[in-house]
Amino acid sequence: MNINASLFVQMVVFFLGAWVTMKYIWPPLIRAIEERQKKIADGLAAANKGEKALAVATEQGKAIEAAARARASTIVADGEKRAQSIVDDAKAQAQIEADRIIEAAKAEAATEMQRAREQLRDQVAALAVQGAEQILVREVDESAHATMLDQLKAKL
Question: In 3-state terms, the chain is what percent helix, strand and coil (to 5)?
């Protein structure tokens, strides 16, 4: 065989193979590569979008945390004020109750003292009557001298 003919046939087979490859194999391969590039680009865009969303969410989280801390400190301060108010109210109520108990005790003591004076007057009057009976050695009429004893009680 002739080298020129062999070279010519090889060239025809090569061009035929190249044409078949470019016509039937190359387009699906290019489509697959383009689809892959598009997926990669979409993935990178989604990753960038996710990073931005993460940054925004982080900032929002920090803002929410700061607001929660401020609210918590406000609640604690209000609680402390309320506790102090409750303690002050309890002290005031205790003082009022103590004053009331003291006044009641004073009134009871005054009543008891008055009762003791009355009993003492009665005992003094009875002793005076007994003393007068013994001095006079006669029986004293208690009903007749009741007014005199009442006068004596009033003077005591």
Answer: 90, 0, 10
